[in-house]
Amino acid sequence: MELKKIEKWNILLYYIGILTVIIGVILxxxxxxxxxxxxxxxxxxxxxxxxxVCIILGLILxxxxxxxxxxxxxxxxxxxxxxxxxxxxxxFSAIPFMISQDLSxxxxxxxxxxxxxxxxxxxxxxxSTPHIFLIYRSIMQxxxxxxxxxxxxxxxxxxxxxxxxxxxxHSDRILPNLIKSSRMILSIYxxxxxxxxxxxxxxxxxxxxAINHSIAALSTGGFSTKLESIGFYNNxxxxxxxIILMILGTISFATHLLLVxxxxxxxxxxxxxxxxxxxxxxxxxxxxxxxxKDLYGGVYKGARVALxxxxxxxxxxxxxxxxxxxxxSFAIFIMIILMIMGGGAGxxxxxxxxxxxxxxxxxxxxxxxxxxxxxHFVKKHYVYxxxxxxxxxxxxxxxxxxxxxxxxxxxxxxxxxxxxYKYPLHEAMFEFxxxxxxxxxxxxITSPTAPSLILWTEIIGMLxxxxxxxxxxxxxxxxxxxxxxx
Length: 486
Description:
Blueprint: H1 2-26, H2 44-64, H3 77-100, H4 105-116, H5 131-146, H6 148-152, H7 158-167, H8 178-202, H9 207-218, H10 236-249, H11 253-260, H12 264-269, H13 271-292, H14 299-314, H15 329-341, H16 354-370, E1 381-385, E2 388-392, H17 394-420, H18 425-436, H19 452-467, H20 470-484
Helix pairs in contact: 1-2, 1-3, 2-3, 3-4, 3-7, 3-20, 4-5, 4-19, 5-9, 8-9, 8-10, 8-11, 9-10, 10-14, 13-14, 14-15, 15-18, 16-17, 17-18, 17-19
């Protein structure tokens, strides 16, 4: 019995070791900009030091706890691996900020968590931040968006790899060959980044800014190289390119595979995508005519602002072209709702996810119809996803209601914490909806001078939002159980 327990710990530590090595390698990637910005070579140590510690620690774990990788994990152990890997990634990623940017641990960890969770909230002055740290933040968002697990998936068996993939917050089903799928997804995303960068440059954006914004838009991260975000450029073409990238970022990985195969009819059948465009089709003209037309002096400017900000909120990207201090309450309320709903399931976006909201609305419709049907009438309900027609049972609906309930409870707790510091209710709701939904839009609460408890409240919200709540709870339960029964 004891031997079996030791073997289980071996499997956990072995895969945590692999992920730790990958994290260490990622920490070295920002050094690639040094040939172009040689005056920033003094920051090299800030990245090499934590990277070497990470790689050495990972190699030790892999060497000492090497095991049979074909053995399956028990329920919850996949969640432990993912959560521990994310904690290690964010902790080690905070170190460069502490060494060279004079940030406290809370501020540095906030910045790292915001990057890895693709949130985009920041406590840094980007106008004075060195290029190496700006690209570093974008790199975190890229790998945080596609997921650490997807990067290492080729080292795993397909069955085990899929369990880890799902534990990282992806509910979609990609190709049966998971290794091939993971490589294809990474290739697709790199292709999008390159195409986005080229289009940005053509539209007039400097190449360094173009690379960063292309990564941030696609990962629905929102880190910008400018204090005014996309609004700095005041360029309609740059805004349209960003909107396209944000929408690409908010559709599932499985849908991207269909897109590459040019299966457009299958894509148009997907209920979640139809629901997304329905929401955009309703909210954009609604906010334009009710709130922004008069604020920005006409329908064109109001619609332009509404289109960009609503796509940014719904996709949970966090880019902006305006500030929200003068926005009417109605527009702020709609933005909060959109941030809570979030983007597509199985994508880089956050929030409750459109699929869950869509299925909840479908279930409401099915329940109403059922009341007008014969008592013993039986009908199988289904929705269209990227993998095709999927039949829905009661357990699926219960799971979604449970998740939404847990999400709302965390949202209320986070907002309540902010209210203790006497922030206005609408500002507290907006800011924590942004953190929990991994959006990145802000009304000014998040700043270098924000109280530590506020930053930690947002940190917890960002982690819960990115890893989809249950994964963290399951990991805590599993670790506690193992510690008690040891």
